[in-house]
């Protein structure tokens, strides 16, 4: 085990070192929150795959394979399908908006009145996603070191908070790329073939297990449908996913890199289910399906390889945890705290303009530089604060599945309709969006209280209620101001001059694609037809 311990310790030290290196690159708000919007296809696809394939996809995916066979792949498979849909149909539009949060997109589309409620919903979702990811450290460190649950959460959470706070999205991007490589080697190239060989091959597996283990819908058609509603649609609108789209260098990177990441997710889903099925042959009487991953790693893998595969599991948890953490902090700072400060500033009497007609240019430039530095520092503080909150909640929380289900149900039930409606239906209004968020969110919460958090009905009826409220209220209220819609279309086409950050190199690279981008945006009916 000494070799395995050395692998894990070196891996954790490497994550902290990359956080320190990323700090040197994070000089502006754009660098800190969206990696300067400069990621190419390789970095983009690797980090996108890392963020969506977390502990639930790795440990949970193997557990579902242990319980249901090959159909246990459906949970992770629907994540991949959602990422493919986002990349093919929406990522180019999203990347051209040059915003930092989903709520900023809603403000642009509906005229600045829909962002605050959506910000609170998105903050709650990203917070719970970070919490559930952080809890997974307890399982991994228990397997590795027999460590106490609370200490495990503090150790794992502290490492993620440290490198995320230091370098923001640059640190997270660098660590996610390493984590993507480690997961690929550990799970796909090592654990998958070794597990199948240990189980005697596919023929032996099929001979020893019921036929349901190899049926495409052995997990149940209704369960698959629910996975599509929660996870596929969740991929379309989550702040943690959109924030990665914002890091793309241009339209083509967002579309092609995301498509590659989505395809990778499909392969990862099948691999997890096969590993779980092999574990069922090797260890048919485990106390819990979620023990399958740890058991097969401890008992079936040689020294050294075992450490690398456990590092792969740890990397899966860290990539999702860090992505959710920076998303949570970004929403808290930009969508909630910034609005509170803005309201407070409007209520205070103005200090008055300078009598000499304004500051000199040199003073103005110095002030801009200081403001940029303050924004980076402010976002660092919010990551630190949110990280501490995540660790405390993770220590106190026990039921991970219910917390994650609650987060996804509220997200999809409250925000899916107004976000997709804003992208696809020009008649949607701010009042309709607010009604959709409120009605959908309350319906989901109310039904979860009455029927149980894990029931399927809350998300079904929540989406229906959200859609009805959005359409009815939008048609009953005054259409969105034409000037707002014109500015929205210009922003989608990449023609707006009020982008959230100005990177001259990126503008030069994307200038040649403007005509193609405009053509795509002006033909939304084709997108709707394909969807």
Give your account of this protein's structure.
By secondary structure, the chain is mainly alpha-helical. The protein contains 22 helices and no strands.
Structural class: mainly alpha
- Give helix % range: over 70%
Q: What is the element string, with H for helices and E for strands?
A: HHHHHHHHHHHHHHHHHHHHHH
Major β-sheet profile: none
Number of helical elements = 22
Overall mean pLDDT: 83
Indicate the radius of gyration in whole angstroms: 23 Å
Shape: globular
Features of the shown structure:
0% strand; disordered C terminus; globular; 79% helix; mainly alpha; 531 residues
What is the structure about, briefly put?
With 531 residues, this protein is an all-alpha fold. Helix content is 79%, strand content 0%. Helix 3 packs antiparallel against helix 11 (239-245), helix 3 packs across helix 12 and helix 14 (305-347) packs across helix 15.
Helix and strand topology:
Blueprint: H1 2-25, H2 29-34, H3 41-52, H4 55-68, H5 74-96, H6 102-110, H7 115-145, H8 149-198, H9 202-208, H10 221-237, H11 239-245, H12 251-282, H13 292-300, H14 305-347, H15 361-396, H16 400-424, H17 430-451, H18 457-476, H19 482-492, H20 504-511, H21 514-521, H22 524-530
Helix pairs in contact: 1-8, 1-14, 3-8, 3-11, 3-12, 3-14, 4-12, 4-14, 5-10, 5-12, 6-7, 6-16, 7-8, 7-14, 7-15, 7-16, 8-12, 8-14, 8-15, 10-16, 11-14, 12-13, 14-15, 16-17, 16-18, 17-18
């Amino acid at each position: 085990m000494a070799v395995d311990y050395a692998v894990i310790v070196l891996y954790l030290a490497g994550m902290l070192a990359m956080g320190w290196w990323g700090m040197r690159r994070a000089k502006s708000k754009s660098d800190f929150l969206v990696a300067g919007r400069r990621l190419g296809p390789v970095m983009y696809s690797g980090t996108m795959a890392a963020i969506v394939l977390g502990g639930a996809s790795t440990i949970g995916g193997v557990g579902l394979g242990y319980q249901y066979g090959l159909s246990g792949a459906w949970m992770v498979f629907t994540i991949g399908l959602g990422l493919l849909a986002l990349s093919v149909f929406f990522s180019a539009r999203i990347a051209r908006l040059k915003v930092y949060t989903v709520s900023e997109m809603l403000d642009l589309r509906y005229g600045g009145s829909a962002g605050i409620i959506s910000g609170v919903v998105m903050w709650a979702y990203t917070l719970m996603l970070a919490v559930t990811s952080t809890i997974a450290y307890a399982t991994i460190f228990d397997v590795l070191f027999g460590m106490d649950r609370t200490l495990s959460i503090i150790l794992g959470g502290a490492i993620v908070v440290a490198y995320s706070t230091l370098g923001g999205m640059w640190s997270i991007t660098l660590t996610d790329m390493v984590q993507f490589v480690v997961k690929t080697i550990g799970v796909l190239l090592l654990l998958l073939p070794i597990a199948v060989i240990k189980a005697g091959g596919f023929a032996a597996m099929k001979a020893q297990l019921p036929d349901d283990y190899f049926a495409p819908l052995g997990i149940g058609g209704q369960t698959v449908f629910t996975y599509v509603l929660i996870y596929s649609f969740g991929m379309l609108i989550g702040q943690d996913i959109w924030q990665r789209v914002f890091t793309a260098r241009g339209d083509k990177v967002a579309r092609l890199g995301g498509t590659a990441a989505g395809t990778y997710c499909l392969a990862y889903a099948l691999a997890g289910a096969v590993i779980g099925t092999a574990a069922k042959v090797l260890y048919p009487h485990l106390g819990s399906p979620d023990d399958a991953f740890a058991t097969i790693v401890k008992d079936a893998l040689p020294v050294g390889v075992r450490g690398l595969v456990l590092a792969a599991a740890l990397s899966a948890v860290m990539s999702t945890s860090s992505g959710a953490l920076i998303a949570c902090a970004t929403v808290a700072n930009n969508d909630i705290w910034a609005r509170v400060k803005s309201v407070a500033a409007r209520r205070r009497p103005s200090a008055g303009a300078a009598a000499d007609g304004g500051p000199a240019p040199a003073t103005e430039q110095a002030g801009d530089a200081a403001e940029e530095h303050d924004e980076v520092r402010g976002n660092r503080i919010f990551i630190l604060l949110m990280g501490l909150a995540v660790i405390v909640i993770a220590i106190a929380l026990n039921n991970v599945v219910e917390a994650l289900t609650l987060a996804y149900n509220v997200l999809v039930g409250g925000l899916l309709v107004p976000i997709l409606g804003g992208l696809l239906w020009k008649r949607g209004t701010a009042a309709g969006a607010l009604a959709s968020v409120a009605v959908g969110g309350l319906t989901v919460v109310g039904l979860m209280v009455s029927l149980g958090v894990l029931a399927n009905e809350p998300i079904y009826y929540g989406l229906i209620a959200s859609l009805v409220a959005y359409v009815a209220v939008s048609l009953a209220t005054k259409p969105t101001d034409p000037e707002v819609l014109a500015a929205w279309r210009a922003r989608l086409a990449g023609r707006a001059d009020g982008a959230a950050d100005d990177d001259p190199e990126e503008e030069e690279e994307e200038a040649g694609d403007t005509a193609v981008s405009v053509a795509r945006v002006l033909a939304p009916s084709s997108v709707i037809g394909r969807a």
